[in-house]
Structures are given as C-alpha cells and as structure tokens.
Design goal:
- Two copies of one chain form a homodimer.
- By secondary structure, the first copy, chain A, is α/β, with parallel strands linked by helices.
- Chain A contains 16 helices and nine strands.
- Chain A has helices at about 20-30, 40-45, 50-60, 75-85, 100-110, 120-125, 185-205, 215-235, 240-255, 265-280, 285-300, 305-315, 325-340, 345-350, 360-365, 385-390; strands spanning about 5, 10-15, 35-40, 60-65, 90-95, 135-140, 150-155, 160-165, 175.
- In chain A, the strands form two sheets. A six-stranded parallel sheet of chain A has the order 2-9-6-5-3-4, with helices on both faces.
- In chain A, a hairpin with a 6-residue loop joins strand 7 and strand 8 (about 160-165).
- In chain A, helix 11 crosses helix 16 (about 385-390).
- Chain A is globular and about 70 Å long.
- The interface between A and B is large, with 41 and 41 residues.
Chain lengths: ~400, ~400
C-alpha cells in the first residue's frame, strides 16, 4: 500500500425526506445568499425542487437560480454562474441534480474566488486554493460528484472535455441523498449511472500497486452491490432498497475510498471524454463501450488480476489450468451485464454517427491536451494503443 | 436501508514518515499550544515520540505533556488533563498512542469546554456540543478511535466503564497513521487489536435491518482482510503490507462506514465493558471470549445471517439442507481463528481470577448503569440472557 492522504469531510444526509434539511445545512455551512444550480424540469417533477425551495424558505434563505445545465456540462454555464455570484453577492452554491449540475456548481464555486479565467484552474495554469461552499441535493446516482474531489467540464469552444487536477478543496460541504428521487429516472439513465459508478471503481482496481487487499476487497464489494442493485432497479424502478444501495455505492465509488494507497489508471475516462466531446454521447454509455475494449487490450498485462475480477465480482469459476479463460469470461460477463441493462456494446449501438474513419480525428483532438500521450497507468496507452482500443469498439 | 447521517471529516495522513506532518497539521487546525497525551515508553521506543516532537519543534509549536495513560483509561487522567489545559491555556490536544491515549485526549477535549464535571457528558446529563480540536498519531491498530465518534472511559471510583452517546463532535481533526509504528507491538497486542476491529464490525453486521447489501459486503471485505492480515502480522511482525492493511481496516471498522443505514447491536461490548471494569482484562481479549459465546446464544434468531457470515467471511461451504450446521461452523472458525492468534477462548484462559460465582456480582455491577437491561438490538439481552452468555464463556 502506498502513502496517501484521505480527507473527505462532506456531510451526508441520507434517506426519505432528507431534502427537508437543506436550509439548515446551508446555514450550518455559512450560506445565506444561495445560487441554486440545476438542469431541466426533472427536479420539478420528482419533488426535489419543491422540497429544497420549501426548506430554504423555511430557513429564511434567499436564492437565485441558474438552470438549463446540460449533460456533459459546458463552460458557458460556469461563466454565467460566476458572473451572477459576483454581481449578486452569492455566498453559497447549491446544486440540485446529478453530476452535471454538481460539477457546474463546483466549477462556479472555485471560479468565483479566482481572479482570472476559471479555465486556468482546469488547465493547471493556477492552483486550486479555495472555493465558495458548495452543497448538493442528488437526484441521479452516477457521477459520484456529491462526494468527490473532481470536476469535469467541457470547454464551449473546441469541445475539450477536461477534469481538474483532483483536490479536496472542491469536495461539497454537504450532500443530501434521497434515493426516492431516483425512482423516476428513465431506465437508460439508471443503467448509464450504474455503469459510470462501476467504471469509477474499475479505473482504480486495475493497478500495479501490490498488497492493496483491503481496497481490492472493498472494490469487489461495491461492484457486486452495484451489479445486483442495478438489475433490481431496472426490473422494478420503485425498488427503494435497490435505489438506496445504488445511491450510497455511487458516492463511495468515487470519493476515493477504493483508490487510496494505489496508483490509479483512468485511461478509459480519457478515451471516453474524447467521445463525449466529439459526439456528446452519454458518459455512462460511452464507458460501457470503451471499458470492455480497453480490458481486452490490456488483459495480458496481468491475467491473474483479471481472473480475480471474474471470480470475485461475477462469481466465475476459476480455471486454474488456463487462467486467461477465466479472465476473458469476466470481460464477457461485464459486457453481457451492460447489454442486459440496455447499454451499447459497440460504436454502432452507441451512436450511428461514429465511423471508423473518425478515429484519426479523435486521436488528433486528444493531442490538443498537454501531456496527451501516453496516458493511463496500469498499461501506458500511446497513440497506437488508443487507436487499437477504439478499433476494438467498432 | 434506514435513513442516516454520515459525517466523518477527519483528515488521514497515512504512510511511512507521516508523523513528520504533525506540526503542519496542528497549525492547519488552529493549534499553537498543545497538550501531548500518551501512555508509557513504547512511543519512545518505536520512534513516534521523537518524530512527533521534532515536527512540533520545526513548526514552532510548544507543548506540555500528560503521560502514563493506562489501557482501559481512567477518569483521573481526564480530570488531570482538563486542569492542565485550563491552567496552561491549551488550544489543541494531541494523542500519540492507541485507543486509550486517544480516548483520554478526546474526553479532555470536550471536558475543557464543559462547565461542570466532564462525567455528565458520559452519563447523558448534558449534551456534547463542542470540544477543543484533537489530533492523533496512531501506534496501535485496534480501537478505531482515530476516526470514530465515540469515547470509552472507566470511572476511577466504582469502575464503571462507559461510552459517550456517539457524536460527530468528538471525531479527531486529523489522524496520522504510520503502520511502521505497529511493527514493534507484542504479538498479543496485535492479536487483541485485530479482534477488537473484527468485533466493531460484527457488532454492526448482526442486525435485523433488511436490504443493507452494500454495508454487509463492505463488512465482509473488512473482516476477510483483518483475518488474513492479522495472520500475516503475527507470523512476521515486520510485514509492513499486512500492518498497513490492518491499520486502515481498523479505522474503517469503527468510523461507522459499515454501520450506516442499519440498527446496530453492541451487546458484546456492553458485556465486555463489565469484565474490563471488574478484572481489567485487555479489551480485545475479553471480546474474544464474549463474542463467540454471544453468537451461540443468539444464533437461532437468524440462522441464515450466521450462515452467510460463515460462507462469506470464512469461506465455509454452505450446507443447504442444514444451514445451522454452516452457521455453527462460522462460530467455530471464528473461535479457532482467535485461538490461533493466541487469544483466550474462555474465562479460565482470559483471567484465572474470573469465577463462575462472580457472575451475579458482574450482573449487579451492570445494574448501576441507567437503562442497564435489556441491551443489544439483534436480540434483546436481559439479566437472564447475560447470565447465560457469561456461563457460555466459562
């Protein structure tokens, strides 16, 4: 196990009606003039908007709204939010929604207190040192941004989808998790969310760091739970127990509980970010295609780790004579599971517009980022490797 | 899954040489005049004292010392610490050691800011609302106090061993975890520590709350890791990977990660606290005797949960025709594991002074506490139940 710092001071309020505590929690963390950040109408249909604003009113907290945040959230809304905060003297950002609303809120929070263009903080041109306090009311179990140390935003011009250098500074002060809000999600979004969380774990699980038994086992526990709970939630959207297990698992999958003490990979996210920026596909759906392809590409680097994944997550029987058969079975089972959830298995199913002939352009696009190649840590992915992985997605 | 709040804002600095950051972390959390709390000479032998005081010096932080904290820490040292803090205007308490030093530091921290007798806060006569900031440098993997919301102290007069009503207020601001410090522990203490952490999980695992798949699986992941790592650490005390996995597991076992969303039991701790107060036995050793006895006593309440424990933690084969055989096998394996670690299996091995004829007096002693009976939640334990469990320990 490597040395690490773990500092995840977010307060979680979990359960039915938890949104009623929003006003009190905003106050507890010093907020009185809120910017409320959300997407479209879904939070008005599932009751989250009503519950949150009732609670703010009751606590005597005033707010302004920034709505219309899209999936794969764009920098434009961040600039807009920063301007409102400065002009209207906001002291707290409250996101209601999923990862897109939350990441936008987090980016606004740190952007407000930074003197230059907030994009500098993404590009590593300036260190992330402070932020306005951010709270969240989660309505989609997926991104884990409600407890995470990261933010992903897509630049409006040029379509660069980019994550900040991870830092505890941007962890929310509190997050309210009411699993009932997720019961009204379309099945496809539930599936994308489950996939997103599984990949957050997989990106950490495939590592070259030895002797991380504990985080390996915690990872497998989370993966199994997400697997079982997602099947239940897809079958019966109102299965509140499945929704609850998924919601807490999604947070743990990305608050770095299962990443501590080891070198993490993140190659698949790098590849998927290019797809999302290029074709605006759903992040979870893009990952469902990229990850099994990446697995096939890197499998030989550590057959036994892949065999372990197959046995401990999918209950495959270990083939002691031919471990690579077990390893392959695990990848096969993961792909089958994604398909069962209604997720795509290849580019054609993901988005008809993706063509084999686009691959060079996608790789060129990646090159616009500093230190574009190689990326990943389990296996270093160079241009040729990225091309091969993308070809395996076809 | 039940509603819950989870708020564990302790900063963890983990790894070799982490103690070098003590001074900076004390500063970060507002400390400048420290009370350093520790036990005997072990921290001077393992290098922790040197490393910590060097770091404090380097950061320009002055300190006073309160040493001589004993296992099963007593209220006398708490009163002493409170007096020093008030007289000498301390603004930060730093514990170096295991659960005893840390619990003493935590009790001093909240006692300093309370106007009456600090014992009121244990007895529930006054709410726990604030504390001086507390930091810890851990040298024994066991109690989990480095990340927990609890404190256990034994009253000097009357020998009542008592825990506070659990509250996030008393969680440390930071904890420094250098697994190398635990390599010099005697084997018996390593074993007691492993047992203590396993029981922190078991007290949460045996519950009547349905649909807590995630925390069930996380519990099993922790239990398996502690099992394997303890065997490694006993065999080779310098196995730093085993020590590292144990150290992080001990924190997770008791920061309530595996207790959220479920009703917890804690009957065994209640029983063991009476033994510790009566005979001053090592907490972990007392638990090694009490827990398997408690398991036998309550097993029939939920055979399938005990069978799951046997299969998922100890790898027993499930007997589908006679699940109670599997359940029994799990208890047998747990007891065998404790024995293998060198821990006692019954009262005679625990302490020769414990006699069958003492049982009524032990139960009488328990009665001095308010709401003494029944206790526990998985199965409610009344006086008769406690007597039967104690008899099973003989």
């Amino acid at each position: 196990m490597n040395a690490f710092r773990f500092y995840a001071p977010t307060l979680f309020e979990f359960g039915e009606g938890a949104e009623k505590k929003t006003g009190d929690l905003v106050k507890q963390f010093g907020g009185s003039r809120v910017l409320l950040v959300y997407g479209g109408g879904s939070i008005k249909k599932n009751g989250a908007y009503q519950g949150v604003t009732d609670s703010l009113k009751q606590a005597g907290i005033e707010w302004l709204e920034l709505s219309g945040i899209q999936p794969n959230p764009r920098s434009g809304k961040v600039y807009e939010g920063i301007e409102i905060c400065r002009k209207e003297n906001r002291d707290f950002i409250l996101a209601v929604g999923g990862g897109s609303a939350i990441d936008t809120a987090k980016a606004i929070g740190m952007g407000v207190l930074y003197d230059g263009d907030f994009w500098d903080l993404f590009a590593g041109k300036a260190p992330i040192e402070k932020t306005l306090p951010v709270g969240t009311v989660l309505t989609i179990s997926a991104a884990g941004s409600e407890g995470s140390d990261s933010i992903v935003i897509t630049q409006e011009n040029g379509g660069l989808k980019w994550g900040i250098p991870r830092t505890d500074v941007v962890r929310p002060k509190f997050s309210i998790l009411n699993p009932a809000f997720t019961c009204t999600l379309p099945a496809f979004q539930t599936a994308c969310g489950a996939c997103d969380m599984m990949i957050h774990i997989i990106e950490r699980y495939f590592t070259n760091t030895p002797d991380v038994d504990l985080t390996d086992r915690l990872s497998e526990a989370l993966l199994k739970t997400i697997h079982d709970s997602a099947l239940r939630a897809i079958k019966n959207p109102d299965d509140i127990s499945a929704r609850a297990n998924l919601m807490w698992a999604g947070m743990l999958a990305h608050n770095n509980s299962v990443g501590i003490g080891r070198v993490q990979d993140w190659a698949c996210h790098q590849i998927e970010h290019e797809l999302s920026a290029f074709y605006d596909v759903a992040h979870g759906a893009g990952l469902a295609v990229v990850v099994p392809a990446w697995m096939e590409y890197v499998m030989n680097h550590d057959i036994m780790r892949f065999a372990r994944f197959a046995v401990n997550v999918f209950g495959c029987e270990m083939d002691f004579a031919y471990p690579e058969r077990t390893a392959r079975k695990g990848i096969h089972r993961l792909r089958g599971f994604f398909r069962h959830l209604g997720l795509p298995s290849n580019f054609a199913e993901l988005d008809k517009n993706i063509k084999l002939s686009d691959i060079p352009a996608i790789i060129e696009h990646r090159k616009q980022k500093p230190n574009a190649f190689p990326f990943g840590n389990f296996v270093k992915i160079d241009e040729k490797g990225m091309e091969e992985i993308l070809r395996l997605c076809v």
